[in-house]
């Protein structure tokens, strides 16, 4: 598999991965705002957001009807729709595309849910690799605390309750997310993840992210206008 840069696309795709509650969504939002304030052409997309299948996914989750295979195929359909309609056209147009989760989410989650790893990878073999992948590595306790800060309870599938790991949602979350973490760590070398210590303060993490993006992407190529020097750092 090749990256978009290796395939000759003028745009660049940056993805973030991590456990639920790792803070990756906050970090990619801050990165998006930083790039926008500099005048860069930026587009943001997130996992499971295609209007084509979003309603079906929501209904299936509410009724707890989704098997691991169904889950996997729905998410693959969602991704394929966004890939063809959003990602590829914008990368061809020279945008920086920011993805809150990419194919690695499926590689980790679907495998933990019992789908054969080779099969999961096979259904995503049409997708090019991101040019940068940030993996936000957080302790399970930190992830759980962050999730519960905004709401009183864990969601059924989020906690992995469909896998019968434990009757206690919090213990199920720890087991489920722990297994996903193992999958991510196994992929980190294979796919050259840029690992960020997600236990650190938000500002410290964002500083590292910005430094790495500035060092690895020729940002000047993506400006609509010249950036304000005060916003570069």
Protein model, in words:
The protein has 233 residues and is of the alpha/beta class. It has one domain: P-loop containing nucleotide triphosphate hydrolases (Rossmann fold, 3-Layer(aba) Sandwich), CATH 3.40.50. 48% of the residues lie in helices and 12% in strands. It has 8 helices and 5 strands; from the N terminus they run βαβααβααβααβα. It has helices spanning 24-37, 54-62, 68-92, 103-112, 117-123, 140-149, 169-190, 202-216, and strands at residues 12-18, 42-46, 96-100, 132-137, 194-197. A 5-stranded parallel beta sheet has the order 2-3-1-4-5, sandwiched between helices. The radius of gyration is 18 Å and the shape is globular. The mean pLDDT is 90.
Summarize, please.
With 233 residues, this protein is of the alpha/beta class. It has 8 helices and 5 strands, in the order E-H-E-H-H-E-H-H-E-H-H-E-H. The two termini are 33 Å apart.
Please tag this protein with its features.
233 residues, alpha/beta, 5-stranded parallel β-sheet
Give the arrangement of secondary structure elements:
Layout: E1 12-18, H1 24-37, E2 42-46, H2 54-62, H3 68-92, E3 96-100, H4 103-112, H5 117-123, E4 132-137, H6 140-149, H7 169-190, E5 194-197, H8 202-216
Parallel strand pairs: 1-3, 1-4, 2-3, 4-5
Helix pairs in contact: 1-8, 4-7
What does the largest sheet look like? 5 strands, parallel
Which fold name is given in CATH as the topology?
Answer: Rossmann fold
Gross CATH architecture:
3-Layer(aba) Sandwich
- Listing every helix as H and every strand as E from the N terminus to the C terminus, the arrangement reads EHEHHEHHEHHEH
Low-confidence stretches: none
- Beta-strand content estimate: 5-15%
- Alpha carbon gap, first and last residue: 33 Å
Query: Rg to the nearest angstrom?
Result: 18 Å
Count of individual helical segments = 8
Q: Largest beta sheet: what is the strand line-up?
A: 2-3-1-4-5
Overall geometry: globular
Briefly note the structural class of the backbone. Answer: alpha/beta
What's the CATH H-level homologous superfamily?
Answer: P-loop containing nucleotide triphosphate hydrolases
Strand count: 5
Instruction: Tell me the number of structural domains.
Output: 1
Mean pLDDT value: 90
> Helical amount among residues, as a percent range?
40-55%
Under CATH at level 1, the class stands as Alpha Beta
């Amino acid at each position: 598999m090749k990256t978009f840069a290796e395939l000759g696309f003028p745009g660049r795709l940056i993805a973030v991965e991590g456990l639920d509650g790792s803070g990756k969504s906050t970090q990619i939002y801050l990165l998006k705002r930083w790039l926008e304030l500099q005048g860069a052409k930026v587009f943001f997309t997130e996992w499971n957001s295609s209007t084509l299948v979003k309603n079906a996914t929501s209904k299936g989750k509410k009724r707890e009807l989704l098997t691991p295979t169904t889950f996997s195929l729905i998410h693959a359909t969602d991704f394929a729709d966004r890939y063809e309609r959003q990602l590829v056209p914008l990368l061809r147009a020279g945008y920086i595309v920011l993805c809150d989760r990419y194919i690695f989410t499926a590689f980790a989650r679907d495998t933990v849910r019992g789908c054969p790893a080779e099969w999961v990878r096979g259904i995503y073999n049409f997708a090019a690799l991101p040019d940068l992948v940030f993996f936000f590595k957080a302790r399970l306790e930190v992830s759980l605390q962050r999730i519960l800060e905004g709401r009183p309870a864990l969601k059924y599938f989020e906690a992995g309750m469909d896998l019968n790991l434990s009757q206690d949602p919090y213990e199920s979350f720890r087991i489920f997310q722990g297994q996903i973490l193992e999958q991510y760590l196994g992929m980190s070398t294979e796919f050259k993840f840029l690992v960020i210590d997600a236990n650190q303060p938000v500002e410290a993490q964002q500083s590292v992210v910005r430094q790495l993006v500035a060092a690895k992407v020729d940002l000047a190529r993506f400006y609509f206008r010249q950036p304000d020097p005060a916003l570069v750092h």
